[in-house]
Write a structure and sequence with these properties.
- The complex is a heterotetramer, with 2 copies of chain A and 2 copies of chain B.
- Chain A is α+β, with helices and mostly antiparallel strands.
- Chain A has 9 helices and 12 strands.
- In chain A, helix 1 crosses helix 3 (42-56).
- Chain B is an alpha+beta fold.
- Chain B is 39% helix and 32% strand.
- Chain B is built from 4 helices and 5 strands, in the order E-H-H-E-E-H-H-E-E.
- Chain B has helices spanning 12-29, 33-54, 86-89, 103-110; strands spanning 3-9, 57-66, 69-78, 113-119, 123-131.
- Chain B has a 5-stranded antiparallel β-sheet, with helices on one face.
- Classes of the chains: A alpha+beta, B alpha+beta.
- Chains in contact: A-B, A-C, A-D, B-C, C-D.
- Bound molecules: manganese (II) ion (4 copies).
- Residues 153, 272-274, 323-324 of chain A line the site of one manganese (II) ion.
- Chains A, C: It holds the Pfam family RsbU_N.
- Chains A, C: This is PP2C family protein-serine/threonine phosphatase.
- Chains A, C: Residues 121-332 form the PPM-type phosphatase domain.
- Chains A, C: Keywords: Hydrolase.
Chain lengths: 333, 133, 333, 133
């Protein structure tokens, strides 16, 4: 320990013993912070304290010396715990950096771009609750005016989830334009997931495709939240759901496939449970609240609708997300 | 019972005054030596944050007595720049946080209850309470 | 703090002050460990110590009391650092678990199986230096008796590296049997990597394919370690290297493509720099040492050769790997 | 100069004897109070490990004087089960390690040089040195 520090400590202690002034205690704490920064261990502080006390009360040295030796002995394990902490903090920071890089890589790897299909307006919001999202959206645009989208919620978050998503992406990328039917797509991805993943890893996924020529929206679901269809002419909402097990549970699963025709002004909202299960101080946010917001915004462009929904729901949850939050909106122009 | 006293924070000396006030109140409320020192340290950290990051502000101390429970609340308020990323400020274990274990997470640990309200551009109010056991 | 603990401390301190016996210090340290486990902070220990000293020397209480108060004040920041440590340890453990799951997922996701091609004997060893490997091997078996292999070393380790590997795997999976030429494969994967990855992320890769019909081994390299060809009839080694930039540096890269014909007893060793740059106490392990080992084992099955090489080199490095270690051996039967 | 003394470890009392020997040697070598306590703690941890995991073994202490440098080496050896995963044993920050900061990483921190040799089924030898500054 530097001698300077010792002198400073001793002088402060002496002053405090004389006047018992708060100023000295404030100064002492500033000093103790510096001690910690300089990796001076608590047993060294006790030793320094002992020396200082013996200087101030030389007549007591013999009498109370051993009690300080005892205290030094006791403090050694505290010192070790602290040193471990300092090394752990460095390790933690390194892990943090690795995580940050992984997030960046994940983002690049899983990048998707919104299809440009005539007559279809698409909006997308996807926000992670923590650093890495467990929600995943992937678009594919086929040459003949088809816009396909997968909206998935991977059980768990972080790295294992990220690796799962790359399976979905590459699974979808390997599809040929002849095979974009929901039933087929869900089966293919279910088999990849089932084969590659642990039994404890499940994925819910909604897959839909819009065909410009027929204005049909065909969809299937692997245990995912139902989508919402807004019928402009009737001003009402219809749930779009289809039977199907979560991905990765069983090898052979039948996925139900359904379709609806979209008319001008209709829109379909696909989402994850982070949207429907938002909580505020009073409990869950009612579905009616969400539908009302959608209704209010119904004449706006798709992106504005989803942005508005996100902002409002985030505010209602006191600026905290309890789960990853994803909204995809297909609007027939 | 509502028993409030306060210290305005402008200079480093005011930090010491706030500490002194807090220690006296803690002692009079019946807190032991270690808890007195903890409450004082929490006040010190909060006052120092005001002094360093907001320039000026106020430390208020309120003695509590409700339902037979006695305690002490510290309210640190300023009209400074506010905290843009609360999550980050409350996070543990960054060697950049200036002093291991200190800062906001430290104050939270020294006290029993802890609440931050902050709006960027408007200021920050931190309320922390310790109960007498 | 429990009263019991206080009494125990006080009694130990008193005994020590009387006899200054090592037994009491040993006991004191056992007690201090328990303190730490029970989250008793250092300032509480000082307070306890103060109380104990004042009981033992009541006549000194007034005189030395304030010095202890000062010490309590100083110790508070040490206490905070320690509490932070305890919370960080829990966080660290959670991260560790996440990492372990990620490793498992990675292993499943990146699994590859050794092709079974008539007349070709294949051996594989791949060992990570840390938990997650930055080396990657992926085999593809084409229907017409072709065995293809990619041996890659991803700059960096851990998660970002793992995500890169999934690009290589899915890139290779998307190849049709018509397009397994090294030049083409390296170009395709280079473009995926270049497009998806950060500028700071590079991959070296050796790609080779063996064709049963012609007994030709065709290869290309993206800045990777040269492979070694053992010519059985001449009993000598030839380096197989081909020009090509690391993957991910530039979008358009020309990769040189070469081929050699394999005769019975010939074998080709593909490897990563973790093999050639092994270090022992005396410095790098000489290439000659590796060649000698290969020569000694030349008549054994491919898997035995690589296993032997790994075991010996691991031993020479004092059972430590400084880098991920990968060996792939193609032996013409 | 080669000055060795040793204590056989069979019972918990032997741990105390090893500590006592270490502390005396450290004092006689000129180490200060804190370093005496650190060396003693390191010996204590090593002796305790022998007592708990190997059943019996030996702590040897050697005073060093080379090139004008003075120091002390502790050699803890046993013929116990050996350590199957050295990496794990040397790792920091497992709440399962029984006492924060203790164990092998603790001994390594308390001393200047540290070396483990261990073979499963044959035993473990740990050599740790502290230099006088
Ligand atoms: Mn999820
Ligand atoms: Mn979810
Ligand atoms: Mn590497
Ligand atoms: Mn390497």
């Amino acid at each position: 320990m530097p001698q300077e520090v010792g002198k400073q400590y001793s002088a402060l202690l002496q002053k405090y013993i004389q006047h018992e002034d708060e100023t000295d205690l404030y100064a002492a704490q500033q000093v103790s912070r510096k001690f910690i920064e300089k990796k001076i261990s608590p047993e060294e502080v006790i030793s320094l304290h002992k020396t200082s006390v013996e200087e101030i009360f030389p007549e007591l040295a013999v009498k109370i010396g051993p009690s300080y030796d005892f205290l030094i002995e006791v403090m050694i394990h505290y010192g070790l715990a602290l040193m471990e902490h300092q090394s752990l903090i460095r390790k933690q920071e390194a892990m943090q950096i690795e995580m940050d890089v992984a997030v960046k890589v994940q983002d690049m790897l899983l990048e998707t771009s919104i299809p440009k299909v005539e007559g279809l307006d698409i909006g997308l919001v996807s926000k992670p609750a923590k650093k890495m999202s467990g929600d995943y959206v992937y678009f594919i645009e086929q040459k003949d005016g088809e816009a396909c989208v997968a909206v998935a919620d991977v059980m768990g978050k972080g790295l294992p989830a990220a690796l799962c998503m790359s399976m979905i992406k590459f699974g979808m990328d390997s599809l040929r334009s002849s095979a974009t039917e929901p039933q087929h797509v869900l089966q293919v991805i279910n088999q990849i997931v089932e084969k590659s993943m642990d039994d404890s890893m499940f994925i819910s996924m909604f897959y839909g495709k819009f065909d410009k020529k027929t204005c049909e929206f065909t969809y299937g679901s692997a245990g995912h939240e139902p989508a919402l269809l807004y019928r402009a002419d009737e001003d009402r909402f219809i749930e779009l759901d289809a039977k199907g097990l979560l991905l990765g549970i069983r090898k052979d699963v039948d996925f139900q496939q359904k379709s609806v025709e979209m008319s001008s002004g209709d829109f379909i909202v696909m989402l994850t449970d982070g949207v429907t299960e938002g909580r505020n101080a009073e409990g869950f946010i009612e579905e009616e609240v969400i539908l009302d917001m959608l209704r209010t915004m119904k004449d706006r462009p798709a992106q504005q609708i989803v942005d508005h929904l996100y902002t409002e729901l985030f505010k209602m949850q006191n600026y905290m997300l309890h789960d990853d939050f994803t909204l995809v909106l297909f609007k027939k122009e | 019972m509502n028993n409030r006293s306060s210290v305005e924070i402008f200079t480093e000396w005011d930090i010491v005054a706030a500490r002194q006030l807090g220690r006296n109140e803690a002692k009079n409320s019946g807190f032991g030596t270690v808890d007195q020192a903890r409450i004082t340290t929490a006040i010190s950290e909060l006052a120092r944050n005001i002094y360093l990051y907001a320039g000026k502000g106020k430390i208020e101390i309120e003695r509590l007595e409700t339902d037979g429970m006695k305690g002490m609340t510290i309210i640190a308020s300023d009209e400074g720049p506010g905290i843009p990323d609360l999550r980050r400020v409350m996070e543990d274990g960054f060697s950049t946080s200036g002093g291991l274990g200190a800062g906001m997470p430290g104050v939270k640990r020294l006290m029993d209850d802890f609440k931050v309200e902050s709006e960027v551009g408007k200021g920050t109010t931190i309320t922390a309470t310790k109960w007498l056991r």
